[in-house]
Known about the structure:
By secondary structure, the chain is an alpha+beta fold. The protein folds into 2 domains: 69-329, Transposase Inhibitor Protein From Tn5, Chain A, domain 1; 390-470, Transferase Inhibitor Protein From Tn5, Chain A, domain2 (Orthogonal Bundle), CATH 1.10.740. Helices cover 42% and strands 20% of the residues. The protein has helices spanning 6-14, 22-37, 43-46, 51-61, 68-83, 161-173, 191-199, 221-226, 308-319, 322-334, 345-377, 381-389, 398-407, 421-431, 445-470, and strands spanning 89-100, 109-110, 119-130, 136-145, 180-184, 203-207, 232-238, 241-244, 250-253, 256-270, 275-285, 296-301. Strands 1, 2, 3, 4, 5, 6, 7, 10, 11 and 12 form a 10-stranded mixed beta sheet that branches. The chain has a two-stranded antiparallel sheet with strand order 8-9. Helix 7 (191-199) links the parallel strand 5 (180-184) and strand 6 (203-207). The longest helix is centred in the C-terminal third of the chain and has 33 residues, at 345-377. The protein is globular. The two termini are 29 Å apart.
Amino acid sequence: MSIFNTEQWSKEHFEKANTGDSRRTKRLIETAADMARCSGKSIALSCQGSEAKQEGAYRLIRNDSVSPEVIRCSGFEHTAVLAQSYPEILAIDDTTSLSYKHQVASDLGKLGSVKDKARGWWVHSTLLLDGFTTKTIGLIHQDWWCRPDNPEDADEKESGKWADASHFCRQRLGDTMSRVISVCDREADIQSYLQDKQSHNERFVVRAKHNRKILDSELPLFEYLESQPELGAYTVDIPQKGMKDSKGKPVNRKARKAKLSVKVAAVTLKSKDEMQPINVVYAQETTSKKDMEPLRWVLLTTEPIETLSEALHVIDIYTARWRVEDFHKAWKTGAGAERQRMAEPRNLERAVSICAFIGIRLLQLREAITIPYYLRKKGLVDAANELESQSCETVFDEDEWKLLMKMKKPRGWNGKDVPSLKWAYQSLAKLGGFTDTKRTGIAGWETIWEGWDTLQSYVVGYRVAKEMLADGELL
């Protein structure tokens, strides 16, 4: 059976949802499976013409007895179970907005200015990754809120979202939390958050924003790091990327190799109330051209930093942070969270909460066949070769890989052995229109999903034809 069987996936995520009625839970599982099978489509389209399914799905989405929190918590608990088997886990935290302009918008919160037509939710998510491969384990926490038009009407400071995320993670993960490293961008460089993590003996890598005062030095943190001896250096590939400059004008960042100097320090941060010992890794690009802003990372961490290998591991941990941004894109675009249309906020929140886990599934579909590329970049060549050479039946069922082979037959295939996972990835990417114009060898998740969606349409027709042939309806 394919690991992406939607019925099995939905049951694993939602069978323990506390909906108050086993029939509601069954309907939740069926609705989520249909939505996953037709990722990015409306609920009506996901029911594929079945009036009974459509009526049942909308009855669930409009049922105030099924809270969005119950739906999400069921998925979080499934992630917590999966996390128990990993020796090192990265918990990636970040915030995004969900934007809507249809009827429900007036009942949601401010995203930009008060006059903006688009309104919606702010959502802070925590994504768990395998620390070895950076494979996505699942979603462990989300905090949803509507921002009031008047900041004085806010119930609490939004900066509390970082500590809240850690609180709920430790509740759900229990003893597993000792193997978790929280990874956050500059917004999390808040004294109270760092103190909260250290008071619970929890691990973290946080990119520094503030040039704080430190004990036993007249220099502030950033200048103090500049004065330290170089521990070593390393080279990183910077991919081509479309960006915007400070004025919002589109610019193209060309691909390049960047050499970075690495320095480290164990310092004590000074604040009004406390002294806070912390390790710091400083990586500064030394090869940037004058027209390019050089890379510079100042990373606050609890991880050891005495050797170059340990410092590079901290940097490697932080580079996994982009995965949560990929999740936001998969959630909003691939799973269609911002295309859902409901008249009531709670109904919309129920549908979009299901979409969050569908977004995770889209990432996992891509990763199941691209993880070897990331392992190779980390120097883990043997592990990458082992994964690439394994049978594609670890991802595809027999009908799927045989149909894919019919369209993209492997060169030199002997007609007996099941093709490799590497062949399956390349073939599926080509089916989705991948041409590798950037010469990275890695297709985007949108391309992979396009190929997967196309393949599934062929599989449905093939299976119907087999049934008709077995029943004698085809000559």
